[in-house]
Specification:
The protein is an alpha+beta fold. The chain has 3 helices and 5 strands, in the order αββαβββα.
Length: 109
């Protein structure tokens, strides 16, 4: 995605979705592993990784994403698409918003 579009158009929508989704802290989050794999649930075309990644960067710029696929790639169910590494609280705080955008964009693609 064009960096200007990501910052000016997508980022305000991501921030709004995060504000709606994060209402309080879940005390159980500290017990979860800090690395999370993004795995395709079904065959399809991947779209929205930039928005997925930006969601976590907004919450914590130290979050790292190692991509194993790119937007526009055909993916198969069970395929690992990326690994997300960072503060577990940020990963769990952003996961629903990041996945909702990724699923919606991939579904349209």
């Amino acid at each position: 995605m064009n960096p200007i579009t990501l910052t000016t158009v997508a980022e305000p929508l991501i921030r709004q979705a995060l504000a709606e989704d994060i209402t309080n802290e879940d005390v159980s989050t500290a017990a979860i592993m800090p690395d999370v794999d993004l795995i395709a649930k079904a065959d399809g075309v991947l779209c929205g990784l930039d928005v997925f990644e930006r969601t976590f960067a907004i919450l914590d710029p130290e979050t790292r994403i190692q991509r194993f696929a790119a937007d526009g790639d055909s993916v198969c169910a069970g395929q690992t698409l990326a690994t997300v590494t960072g503060d577990v609280r940020m990963l769990l705080s952003g996961e629903r918003v990041a996945l909702n955008y990724l699923q919606r964009m991939s579904g349209i693609a």
